Amino acid sequence: MNYIIEIATSNYASTAAAVAGGASRIELCAALSEGGITPSFGYLKKCRKDFTVPLFPIIRPRGGDFSYTDEEFEIIKQDVIFCRETNFEGIVTGFLATDGSIDKERILTIVELAYPMEVTFHRAFDRCKNPFEALEDIISVGCKRILTSGQKPTAPEGADLIQQLIGQAEDRIVIMPGSGVRKENIAILARTTGAKEFHSSLSSTTKSNMRFIHPDFENEAGDYSINTVWAEEVQLLFNAFL
After folding, report:
1. Is the pLDDT of residue 215 over 90?
2. pTM higher than 0.90
């Protein structure tokens, strides 16, 4: 079976490494530490120019919850239009109402505005009140896939719900496990859930090449390290199925 592996990246070097490692698709993000927010114009343009692999920018104007103000929704719409005009294959986004249900009106607006791009409903799904009702709502508005950890911190922990969602979906939408997906568990997840697409950030860090470290900030590890994806780790995800 041919599995699809999507890699989330947050900088150009990581995107290039994920492509070199054979990633099926890339979710382009900024600030993965916040769950991902919309990347910069320059990053998106450069990746679109340099890579032919399907690229799906996340459209999320801030960290935090998934209930947005009218002003934030206007920002989201402008970002979607930019991605459509820049010829991305898809986007990743999601909206919740304050009662924990899917905000169908807003996600439908985005699906229609994004066309012909595909829309992945992201892990806002994992914060919804009723995942089985939410699944039907998301299918009804035309999203192509749902990224989910089965409403648990990691996909291996949420495998039972992921399996149930895949059964209910009956191929009407792709259910894509994400969060905590690694080479050690991806084959087991495939067998236990029936999933065919998987999402991973393969997140690691590499030391900055800065030679000067300011003494007052030498213990601020984040100032002197960079988020990294290694091409070999992407290949090992695919090899785990063999």
Report:
1. no
2. yes
